[in-house]
Amino acid sequence: MPTAHPWTPLPSTWRTHAFTETTAVLLESSAPSETEHHSYLFTSPTKILTANHQGELPTLFEQIEAALSRGHHVAGWFAYEAGEHFLNLNPTQHKPVAVLGIFNGPQVFDHHQPQATILEQPKPLQIAAMPTLPRAAYNAAIQQSGGRGRSGGRGAAG
Predict the structure, then answer these.
(1) Which of 40, 71, 89, 98 is most deeply packed, by most CB within 10 A?
(2) pLDDT (tens digit, 9 = 90+) per residue, 19-49?
(3) 28 within a domain of the structure (yes/no)
(4) Does 107 fall in a domain?
(5) Which long-range contacts (CB under 8 A, 24 or more apart) does 137-143 make?
(6) What is the pTM of this model?
(7) Number of domains in the chain
């Protein structure tokens, strides 16, 4: 009888990577078993493949096959409407129908042996660029402006 392995949830840093890197693809395993206990994080694609309509899918599949034959990995998504291509239906207006990245390889998280998984900490999420100015330079700029712009400062009468 096989021994049961403890199941370790995916660390939050993996989801943070997938959320903050727009070209990242996270394939998370959630059904523990003896054979299926890995999650995969693909980051930094070497190329992005896009099919904007069903007519571009055959070319996309050729590009996928070429990348796989060179030892690369391909991960991404297909829109539901991409299925119209295989069923020979009249295409609907949905753009794009597929976006995939070509990757050198994934980072692998083993839910049975999480200590063996190393993932560098993600960069902080940049909400907006925040300029920094040393306090001395700020004070000098205020002095140079004669205090204009401060509440109660000199300025045009209104």
Answers:
(1) 98
(2) 899 999 999 887 777 778 889 999 999 999 9
(3) yes
(4) yes
(5) none
(6) 0.66
(7) 1
